[in-house]
Amino acid sequence: MTELVTRKDVDGISILSLNRPEALNALSPSLFVELQAHIKALADEAETIGCVILRGEGRSFSAGNDLKAMQAGDVAPHPRFQAETVEMIEDLPQPVIAEVAGHCYTGALELALACDLMVCGEGAKFADTHGKWALTPLWGMSQRLPRRVGVLHAKEMMFTGRVVSGPEAVEFGLANKCVPDEALSEAAMTLARDIVANSWHTLRADKMLVKRGQEFGLKAGLQFERENSPGRATGKGERLSGFKQG
Predict the structure, then answer these.
(1) Which tens digits make up the pLDDT trace of 48-82?
(2) CA 108 – CA 111 distance, rounded (Å)
(3) What three-state secondary structure class fits 8?
(4) Residue 102: enclosing H or E segment and its boundaries?
(5) How far, CA to CA in Å, does 177 sit from each of 105, 167, 172?
(6) Model pTM?
(7) How confident is the model over 147-162, as pLDDT tens digits?
(8) Which of 120, 121, 102, 119 is nearest to 181 (CA)?
(9) Who's near 15: CB < 8 A, 6+ residues apart?
(10) Quick one: CATH architecture of 5-196?
(11) Which end of the chain is more exposed for a tag (fewer CB within 10 A), N or C?
(12) What is the pLDDT of residues 94-106, one digit of tens each?
């Protein structure tokens, strides 16, 4: 049976690929079950995996939620399963890069927004199409999109449903960089290699401090950092550079 999500590990980097290219990687409940299993495993592998890349096989990251699969009887384990899975991605101790080619619509955009960084191809297409189907966000669009691109841009995308190009995504602050489509995977891997070359202890601390710090105002955030920054790693927990353990 074909895996709906595949995993490949290279030099401390785990590459998760949505694997329904014939359906533009539409997000069926069964795909989410496999994705969550991979995420749970990665959460326990912070000493051997320093960075995660989330991507789609074929010409698109994902066309979004698979309504046809649900109509055909493919049901998630519980009503909040997909939203829970998206949040688990956000909560991974490792930095996560979204590698976005082609379509990244609605549920797929919610999935990508849970990633820490994003590299997209010039042919990438981002959109929130909830309004075209009389649906409302359940996987985090109303919270993560404004925090990523600002309230003004988020409202425009959500209210109009218009498609945002790869270059425009960088202008918005939705993506870190936009590269030629044929160079996309190489660009995402280069970014991941730059990340894992640094201390993994620091990477995990940085991610935790920035994420939790968003819950506070500046003064409270500064206090949170002082009280919760774990300090320098020592012994076996110290990774200096180049995927090296002390």
Answers:
(1) 999 999 999 999 999 998 878 777 777 888 989 99
(2) 5
(3) strand
(4) none
(5) 18, 8, 11
(6) 0.93
(7) 999 999 999 999 999 9
(8) 121
(9) 7, 8, 9, 52, 53, 55
(10) Alpha-Beta Complex (3.90)
(11) N
(12) 999 999 999 999 9
